[in-house]
Amino acid sequence: MKKNIVRIVLFASLAFTAASCTDELTVMPNDRLVLENYYQSENDFRKGVDYAYDAFKISGYYQQDYSQIIVPDVVSDNLIQNPQGRRSNNDAYNFNFAGDNNSVISIFGAGYAVAARANVVLDKLGNLTPGAFRSNIEAEARGIRAIAHFDIVRRYCKIPTQSADAGTSIGIAYVEKFDPFQMVPRNLNVNQVYDKIIADLLFAEQNITQSGSNAGKLTKPAIQGMLSRVYLYKGDYDNAILWGQKALALSPNVGTIITFKDIWNDTSSDGVLFKILNSGIENIKTGTAYNQTVGGQIKSEYVVDYDFYTKFAPTDIRKSAYIMTSPFLTKTYNNVIKYKQAANKPIEAVDVKYLRTAEVVLNVAEAMFKKGNEAGALGLLNTLRAQRYTGFVPGAEAGQTLWNAIMLERRLELAFETDRFFTLKRLGLPIQRSNFGPESNGAGNPAVMLSLPASSHKWQWPIPQEAINIDPGIQQNPGY
């Protein structure tokens, strides 16, 4: 394994001398050590924040086989391993988690690397004249820092709604200053980490000035939508509703049934609040973790579990937008094509849609249901379903049937976008895979490991052993 934790230092202590990244972030990172005379002009700070956005594309985040674009689905029940693939992420798939398994440890170092790049900018803010530009730069950097820490804490710690003791259980370090020699002791509990994430996001929401039309950078509706997600995880349903509704007021479009497929070939940003841009020049193969093209055929590492596949109705636009049934050698599979179809880019070099309006709709609907507002929850659910099903007739579900409908639409809408594992985790539910095999009709051998009980310690991934070797004061999660 590469020295993932050392990368916290290496990535964080890099700046660049290339031309400023455009909105499409088409300039490949040109790493250089931070110089004392850097971060003087507004252009320097714009480059610095763009460089922090770029960090989401480093190895261990949304790059390489153990990209976090696939791992949370691999370890849940949406996917099944294709025996004709390369068996990437095999240990994660079989719940063989360990402190040297890149699939589940890589985001620890990668997340802190993102936060560190943001902190470099924040530490130099005194060089800027107070005003709108400085406030916006600080808002973006603090928003990026919050997202990075959120991605760490939801993987390596309990989620507040997961169990009665979750909020006071061990958290992570929340790093707020750039220090190339800083260790990251786990000195906060989970509630304290969430409070710091929320504080950064609230500052960002109050101070960000960018237009809501730029999905490649954080904007006010993106921050508001992120607040709805974090508050939902925290179990603060009033605030999940409040901030979700604010986001929906500014950006209500969930993507129409007509334009929905274009979201996934990167010719439309309908309903996308924040995405990680991936240019043809960078050519980061975000889709390779799912499959490759070999001899004109799709060779998948993981395919859609047949039981899950049958939950997509024939009238659901998501079925053809997300999945393609096609042969590879002598077998036929239901392949995930969400990250394979970018127009005018190399194959599999697709933008990562980190947060979409549809998720915010589902966040608010779930929170409303929890607060007893079934009419509001149903109205939002019908709004989303009207743009996903041809000939949709508004539903009239209530009670448990409504809850089941919200959960089904969440699973269908956010399939293969990292959500499934965390939804099960925050609801305290087990993973229960089907008995079907990987072929398009469910034939073949099922997964060896069919279930993970809600009580398992493996819902909290192991801290990288490399981090503990560097700083023995970092506490490993129980059970590893």
TrEMBL record:
Record domain RagB/SusD: where: 295-480
Subcellular location, record wording: Cell outer membrane
Gene3D superfamilies: 1.25.40.390, 1.25.40.900, 2.20.20.130
Main location group: membrane
Pfam families linked to this entry: SusD-like_3 (PF14322), SusD_RagB (PF07980)
Cleaved signal peptide residues: 1-18
Domain of life of the organism encoding this protein: Bacteria
Entry keywords, A to Z: Cell outer membrane, Membrane, Signal, TPR repeat
Keyword check for Ligase: no
Residues in TPR repeats: 221-254
Domain SusD-like N-terminal, chain residue ranges per copy: 73-232
Record-stated family: Belongs to the SusD family.
Name of the molecule in the record: RagB/SusD family nutrient uptake outer membrane protein
